[in-house]
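Q: Convert this sequence to structure tokens.
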Amino acid sequence: MSADGTVACATCHDPARAFTDGRPVSIGIHGRAGQRNAPTILNALYNKMQFWDGRARTLEEQASFPIINSFEMGQPNLDAAVTKLGAIEEYKQAFQKVFGRPLNGPDLLRAIAAYERTLVSFDSPFDHFIAGDQNAIDESAKRGWELFNTKARCNKCHALTETQRDVTNFTDFDFHNIGIGILRHNVAPLARKAEQEIASGHLEAVDRAAIQTDMSVLGRFLITKKEADIAAFKTPILRNILLTAPYFHDGSQETLWDVVDHYNKGDGLKNPWLDEDIQPLALTESEIDDLVAFLVSLTSPEYKELGTQELKHQQTLARKSRPQRDTKRAFGPKPVQPTPPGR
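A:
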């Protein structure tokens, strides 16, 4: 559906890879690299907002942006995509049959969103464990589930409330600054630039900034212009998380061990906007392994073989390198958070 016929939805959301692409950031038309990691669209119907920064509220709205972004599909407008698809007789007939009218932009978006709503993935070993099968997951994963809700503090963001365990989507559907990517950018000037150049509510401009510029690091701030939202990104659903590497909005972490190491050290140095719940966790190596085992247990059966391959791959990487591991900081006090610039 791209302007040059080289990029489809499945280019970045490959069904064979749990509807991701395995890249740190996605590659669009003419080989252009964006700024964001492609999230899976499995269970996307449960998201209250779409994209890492929540700039779209519905799947229909979400579907429109990649089509017209010059770094993704590169169509000048939605009508151009309609014209391209309308040249294919099979699509013309299918849209006429389903919608009772000729192919048009809104119906194109409805069709994409309707398909995405069919992509529901549950029935993991963890689900069988919660349903009462004590043998569905091993002892390591069981310990990891306890850590997830206690010492590891994952439930601060990956649950609807801190008092009730979430066994469905493992998200609060909110946005948090967790310290990813912020040290690579001079964030305060970027925030001022965004305030000047991107009008509130101009979502196409937000989309371009998020995909094409360094302002991508500002996350939710691009939409709200609230200081508290600087570098805050959506808490993702954790189902099939093993299969969606590399991790975080910028694809900067290769393995689940890297992810846990990042949180373990309470990464908040030089980050005035860090979420208040981020702090050193003092997790031991065995506890980190247990937490990863729990996350692996969220893999649905249709991806069992792919999950086995991916786990071996990540284990190999983790044995060779753990760039986020910092035992001293993990077992140290919470760093003093710096004051935001201008205060």
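The domain at 9-116 is CATH 1.10.760.10 (Cytochrome Bc1 Complex; Chain D, domain 2).
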